[in-house]
Amino acid sequence: MQPSGLFLYISFMKIEKLHELFLKFSTISTDTRKVTKDCIFFALKGENFDGNTYAKKALESGAKYAVIDDERFADSDATILVPDVLTCLQQLANFHRNFYKTKVIALTGSNGKTTTKELINSVLCTTYKTIATVGNLNNHIGVPLTLLAIKEDTEIAIIEMGANHQKEIEFLCNIAEPDFGYITNFGKAHLEGFGSFEGVIKGKSELYDYLQKDEKPIFFNADDELQANKLSNYINKFGFSETDSHYYNIQLKEADPFVQIIFENQEIVSNLIGAYNFINCCAAIIMGKYFNVSIDQIKNGIERYIPSNNRSQVLTQNTNEIILDAYNANPSSMKAALDNFSKLKTTKKIVFLGDMFELGSTAPEEHQHIAELTSALNFTEAFLIGENFDVTTSDLKTFKSFNELAVFLKTNTFKDASILIKGSRGMALERVLDLL
């Protein structure tokens, strides 16, 4: 986290001059392994490295300039010395964001941020020149890099913002200065950093707080009681609902397994599994309506999006149908995935669940709740993997490590089954595919 006075840290004229160079040489690199000809290298620091020591290598590899903050490495006209490289990158991004008239949509939330961002982009790019956060580069470095990808003809930028502590969303808003905002949900994610579920709500709501200061438009799920209550007195809001006629009416037709939606007498068939992805589609739909995208193009945008990177992917392997949702997990997303899987119209259901990370002192309790829920749903078989799940009490089979699971699967196979694989990124449960 940088100091709140970040935009006073480097003089306005110096950033303006650096921006002039950036317009001429507009590729940014922070990794010497990815340096391209005539890029600008920013010598960022990390826990185990100092980018200043790589500045010379970056220039030798083709970088036009290297931005550094250690005068010992200012040994050529191609080095630009600043007080702090990271702060400079953030300031440059803010200056660039305001240089063009691009509209900025910011979104955050506990679950579904990246999928929602991709859906919004898929809808809006049918009609506008858009850019969006690449992958989940949604932190104090990723957000500036995304903003610096704005071009003269970019009409809308969709910026994903992640956080695991208070004030991080506020900080990212000060860099991106969003014109619009959306929070996917409030869930039990990053409890270790936020301290509690109430801390999550407060932290994520910093996006609402930023937008409300200038009465900027907010998109929201009117059927989410927590969000509806927080926005009860706010006028400039645009919501969706299955029941409330004051907002855009969007209906979930079914999710078995793919989400099918009814909106304005159109049936939209997505490539996303899970009723929880209905909400993510709704966000893209109402933003499409707000920006006057035709219903045909909204439908096209939703239907052409295919999930990847271990997020809600549906795969066929031998005789098994697999739902691979191993990119991340927290108690809220885990419960939603289990509830949805239990409702699928298949008879043989196998579940592999991996530990949920960053839960702090609540980890034992939250893993126990998921173990009990999984047991109560009476799947054909269910396996819990990881040190946290291994100490839970239930009638389910647990494995302390992935290696223990691998040994078990060498002599146990599954056929003609529906299989759910879900866990936190650190568990890398996509490895189960190789064992099946």
Strand order of the largest sheet: 6-7-5-8-9-10-11
CATH topology of the largest domain: UDP-N-acetylmuramoyl-L-alanine:D-glutamate ligase
Query: Structural class from helices and strands?
Result: alpha/beta
Q: In angstroms, what separates the terminal alpha carbons?
A: 43 Å
Helix content: 25-40%
Fourth-tier CATH superfamily name of the largest domain: Mur-like, catalytic domain
- How many β-strand runs? 20
Family: Belongs to the MurCDEF family. MurF subfamily.
EC number: 6.3.2.10
Pathway: Cell wall biogenesis; peptidoglycan biosynthesis
Protein name: UDP-N-acetylmuramoyl-tripeptide--D-alanyl-D-alanine ligase
Describe the structure.
Pathway: Cell wall biogenesis; peptidoglycan biosynthesis. Residues 311-423 form the Mur ligase C-terminal domain. It catalyses: D-alanyl-D-alanine + UDP-N-acetyl-alpha-D-muramoyl-L-alanyl-gamma-D-glutamyl-meso-2,6-diaminopimelate + ATP = UDP-N-acetyl-alpha-D-muramoyl-L-alanyl-gamma-D-glutamyl-meso-2,6-diaminopimeloyl-D-alanyl-D-alanine + ADP + phosphate + H(+). With 436 residues, the chain is of the alpha/beta class. It folds into 3 domains: 6-84, MurE/MurF, N-terminal domain (Udp-n-acetylmuramoylalanyl-d-glutamate--2,6- Diaminopimelate Ligase, Chain: A, domain 1, 3-Layer(aba) Sandwich), CATH 3.40.1390.10; 100-304, UDP-N-acetylmuramoyl-L-alanine:D-glutamate ligase (3-Layer(aba) Sandwich); 313-435, Mur ligase, C-terminal domain (Protein-Tyrosine Phosphatase, Chain A). It is 36% helix and 21% strand. It contains 17 helices and 20 strands. The chain has helices spanning 12-24, 55-60, 85-99, 113-124, 142-147, 168-176, 191-194, 197-204, 206-213, 225-230, 276-290, 295-304, 331-343, 363-376, 387-390, 402-409, 432-435, and strands spanning 28-29, 40-42, 65-68, 79-81, 103-108, 130-132, 156-160, 180-183, 218-221, 237-241, 248-249, 251-255, 258-263, 266-273, 313-317, 320-325, 349-354, 381-385, 397-399, 418-422. Strand 18 (381-385), helix 15 (387-390) and strand 19 (397-399) form a beta-alpha-beta unit. Helix 6 (168-176) crosses helix 9.
